Inverse folding.
């Protein structure tokens, strides 16, 4: 379907400085990043923040939004994505194929976990004494593990789209503080190929489906 009905309070105007393809990359991923960092993670200026899964759709927004809050940001990603994650503002990058950040001796005030491939105990070891671990989604087993082992300092959440947060993100976009990272765009006729590519894992940012409108006379 080309159209969908949604409540007015879940909508915001497209930033004037963005294409429709760029705007399509924003709402879900940016809201996840904003609510995870600000609402659950209680991010503060000057904090050391680690984004695990920094090169994906949610992660690229998380890096930039964390920087907009004045945090010192470390992004964890694969080798081929290191330069891209640096380019969007990460102060440090960690190649997870070469280094285990949970054993480096570094401690973080906030860990925003999108990749969720390690034990909850590993993440807890990398937190500062008052640090907070935020899991974006994850399996039921992992969610239960976080709540049982971590207590208040380790939590998960599901994003709740709303107009207020979309407008907040729109202002960041218009100010140039956040930009969507788009890996590839596919026409609707190639949606199967887009799903296949996405399913291979590790896209840089978002994969976009475009719909061409044909004016009939």
């Amino acid at each position: 379907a080309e159209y969908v009905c949604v409540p007015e309070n879940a909508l915001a105007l497209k930033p004037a400085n963005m294409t429709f393809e760029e705007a399509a990359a924003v709402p879900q991923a940016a809201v996840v990043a904003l609510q995870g960092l600000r609402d659950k993670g209680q991010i503060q200026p000057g904090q050391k923040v680690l984004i695990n899964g920094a090169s994906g759709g949610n992660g690229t927004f998380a890096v930039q939004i964390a920087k907009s809050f004045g945090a010192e940001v470390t992004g964890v990603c694969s080798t081929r994505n290191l330069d891209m994650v640096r380019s969007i503002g990460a102060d440090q990058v960690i190649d997870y194929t070469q280094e285990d950040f949970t054993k480096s001796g570094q401690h973080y005030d906030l860990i925003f976990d999108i990749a969720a491939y390690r034990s909850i105990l590993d993440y807890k070891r990398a937190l500062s004494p008052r640090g907070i671990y935020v899991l974006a989604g994850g399996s039921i087993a992992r969610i239960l593990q976080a709540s049982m082992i971590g207590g208040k300092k380790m939590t998960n959440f599901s994003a709740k789209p709303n107009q207020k947060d979309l407008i907040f993100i729109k202002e960041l976009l218009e100010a140039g503080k956040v930009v969507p990272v788009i890996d590839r765009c596919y026409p609707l006729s190639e949606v199967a190929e887009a799903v296949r590519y996405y399913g291979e894992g590790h896209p840089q940012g978002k994969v976009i489906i475009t719909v061409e409108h044909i004016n009939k006379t």
